Amino acid sequence: MKHLSEYRDEALTRQLLEQIHAVVTRPWTLMEVCGGQTHSLVKNGILKMLPEQITMVHGPGCPVCVTPIHIIDEAIALSQKPQVILCSFGDMLRVPGTKISLLEAKAGGADVRMVYSPLEAVKLAKENPDKEVVFFAVGFETTAPANALSVIQAAKQGVSNYSILASHVLVPPAMEAILADPETKVNAFLAAGHVCTIMGFNEYDPIAEKYKVPIVVTGFEPIDLLQGIYMAVKQLESGEAKVENQYIRYVQREGNLRAKEAIDEVFAVSDREWRGIGTIPHSGWEVNDDYARYDARKKFSLIAVASEDITTCIAGEIMKGKKKPFDCPHFGKGCTPEKPMGSPMVSSEGACAAYYHFSQAELLPA
Fold first, then answer.
1. Which domains does the chain have, with CATH numbers?
2. CA proximity to 222, closest of 10, 1, 2
3. I need a labelling partner for 146 at 20 to 30 A (CA). Which of 162, 185, 215, 235 fits?
4. pLDDT, tens digit (0-9, with 9 covering 90-100), for 67-80
């Protein structure tokens, strides 16, 4: 509890808020990249404490939210094959595909299992040699090392009935896509601390330089977020645009070198479609040719089929920072966590779910 209380200290919170109020003189729009940061901002009431000149918008930092429907449909189709055990983290089970979710597929008889680590899926494959075990590998750079290691371990142990359905997305290309949009309102970013724990933050320097935006690597507790906001606003007010690291207790500039080695061994960069946003070049990872036998798409000869999202859902506009959840006419009415229209409402890290669960009344405009 020591570290929790340290980064939720009331006196330090007030001090940082006073510093932010003292330094800001102009309107600025900041985007936090990570869904965990969004939840912390909303749950702790930080959005209401900030000066009115500062607008926080919520980026595409939820891997569940940006996984396109056609990949969810691929996972569901695999789960319905009689010889397949489909493994997934729990946050993907309720996300709707074109017709049903993985949870509904499980209710219909598919062998869908929730696991807490991809290594559990490798173990399951060893224990069930007559089955094909597929792990639904969704996530940003944060989960990629464990997913890569599961493939490496399967290869070392000679487990041939294991594969992954990769849906990895990369943060820096998404940030650049947002900044390249002529309608963007974003003046600065709070970069996702857990992603940078793995990857470091060297790759953010060219973005800050090219688009003249401050980027502050930031943690998830209230003190982290307020300090990150203060650092970003100080840069904006002084006309600076550089990368700074607020999350120094975990993040180093070069990241985790051993984790990056595992990623590089198994994955290759690819274009990736982001749900609600579209295809972003070089923004994903696929299993490379050296480990092609562990690529579920190749093993099962999957063919991507275009799937249409719900056209009235504004998830894409929310994740680009152009709108807030309460701008959607369905928010809290036709779209709730119990009956979500879009992934930002069903995901535990989605902006819509955060607004719905924690602060609807306080966040609605006057």
1. 64-170+255-299 (3.40.50.11740)
2. 10
3. 215
4. 989 999 999 999 99
